[in-house]
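Reproducibility note. Readers wishing to regenerate the assembly model reported in the main text can use the exact inputs given here. Chain order matters: entities are listed in the order in which they were concatenated for prediction.
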Amino acid sequence: MNSLLSLPLLAQAQDGASNAAIVSFSIYIAAVMVLAWLSNRLLQSKSFLSEYFLGSRSLGVWAFALTFAATSSSGGSFIGFPSLVYTHGWIVGLWIGSYMIVPIVSMGLLAKRVNQVARTTGAITIPDVLRDRFESPAFGATATGLIVFFMVFNLIAQFKGGSVILQTLLSDVPMFQMASDSLANVLPSIPILSWSADNPGYLLCLLVFTFAVVIYTAYGGFRAVVWTDVMQGFVMVGGVVLMLPLALYAVGGLGKATQDMAKMTPPNKVQLAFSVETARDSSLSIPANSWFVRGAGDSARVFRTAAQALIVAGEKATRGDDDKGIPGIELTYSGHIQKQVQEATNRPSSLQDVTVEVIESVEYKSGAGQQGTYVTGPGPHPSSDAGFLPFSLAVSFFFMWTFSGAGQPSNMVRLMAFSNANTLRRAIFTVSIYYSLIYFPLVIIFCCARVLLPGWETESDRIMPEMAKATTEIINMPWLAGLLVAAPFAAVMSTMDSFLLMISSAVVRDIYQRNINPHASEKTIKRLTYVVTIAIGAIAMLAAVSPPAFLQDIIVFTGSGLSTSFLTPVALMLYWPRFNHYGALAGMLGGFGTHVTLYAVGTIMAGGKVAAYRLFDFHPFMVGLVASVTIAVIVTLLTPRPPENLVRKYFYKDGGEG
Amino acid sequence: MSESKPKPAEPEWDPTYLHSLREVYVIIALFAFFCVWSIFVCYNYGYLSPGEQRSTVTTVLGMPSWAFWGLCLPWLAVDIVAIWFCFFFMVPDDLGEDQPDVYEEMAGIDGKETGNE
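Running the prediction on these inputs yields the following structure tokens for the assembly.
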């Protein structure tokens, strides 16, 4: 380990983009509040429950298409997905590739029939449909229980995700930092919130996000959620469509970017220590994402920190927790190394006399030193020998994205809400084009980001706002970054509001009205709806104050769990006249049980980290779906035929009376 | 000549159900086709063997050729197929009248009649 004089470069986010972020966020919140107010006015003239939870089954093409698309695109689409493209390269295009067919499958598979059956029974929620289709209160109650179980977990994770995104985007805004500091002073005196005393910025974002989402959802109901989804949908696609030409312009064309990527090799993961020749009177802070260049010419080595480092006053060196050093990366691609060496000589620095020492250096397990790894499969991976996307996972994800979307109750309830079949036909086409404009361009944009902004493996979740800042600065229009960074807000909020309303409808309609008090007055239902929506939002927020770790894993667990539980019973009840409630209940519980068991085994094997056990290398969603179908069919065939009146009602013209 | 009892007329299947079922078969076939196309092309032409180096890559419209033939082209093809599926194949069936919610009727809480607070 050599210790040489380093030339540090600070590459912190500039105020411009963050100020744009806070302005765009404020305008955005104001707009959703206006939409909620308008929705509430409309609510006054309609039947409360069917308007509040289903928009009176009257959605037109744009509302239906964009609420479906926006609800499916959570924060992952604009934070996690760009991060994956940046980290693993072009192969992430195959990982998300099935979105080409998702609209046709997830809307076309069930939409007409679920809408028709819901109309036949006057159902407002998915458990309503299930219960009425089989005249089985037990089945309806089971469905309600599963929705509440999975969605509460998911909602907590989404709340945390939204707050982390907001905090990331606002972290450099002075006004935000002042507000965080003020909050930090009062937190220790509030027992229920004192857990967050170490991270007041996160708590502040959580409070703002919760307040905004809960208020507009509770006040405006389904209609407000749909209208805001439409706005959010336009914001998302607008952000991508604007960013694509900017990114291509910035890298000099896609062909050049792809050839540059072909030459790249993955960085090494390093642990660093920093020291100064003479101790200082005050502590020296080295921010996260600081560049350090060691040496010169062809032997230059370039490092970037992934966490803040501190040389305490009076001391000469710093180490990270447990003396392991400060985590960071070392670039290995000569093109990026030379670029950073050039920028190092051009920039003044306040950290000139800091030297860096490499304590430990670890290569990627897959793709290290392998040119071409970013433009081919299976893609580089820091901890998996098989790479990012081995064949079995490519097949799994192609199936999972497609059919998981079809089995989501939050999507199904939208399928109950469109006005007629012509609306459905136009909406499927609209969503097909919409996804084409979002997902493939995102792959291109963040492949360009790999070329333009090296070293963000240190904090790849920030690549979206960083790319917005970089591309808009190149064309000298930093204000445009505000519009681009509004896309992640939009994506998270459009998912959160839908989930919040799903849980609220499950409690008010499916539990209270259908099981506890069928004769409840409108006044009671109305009050209960508002109270429950606000209460669920508050509970989810409190749970997110000290949120579970492994956020993305929990989101995948709940999303795939809902699909394995619901897709089979819903699909078979719509298309198989012989299907009965025994088979439906067994299929639902069979899928649920298989999925949860595989996750439990995986979590135990991973030592407590939420993880899936991959039977034959396939994701639990696929195994659970096969189990659900098999169990549902076998149990149905072994049990009595369904009542003739139900078969006639749902499968024959005019209820079989013709 | 004995008069036989007239058989009760066989009820007709719901046309919306029949059309939807036909559409489901096509949807599954489309999924299978594009899944095989995409994964076959990407896996056969876009995957490196362990240790293999590829410092240049063949491109089409600036993207790796496997990504163009295995992702971009089928994606465009799906959009074209979507036009056929949505506007020429899918039947715009009558989905029926929306039945009133029995629970709202039971409680006499139809907002249009009682007004709202």
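We highlight two features of this model. The CA atoms of residues 10 and 18 of chain B lie 16 Å apart. Strands of chain B lie at 59-60, 63-64.
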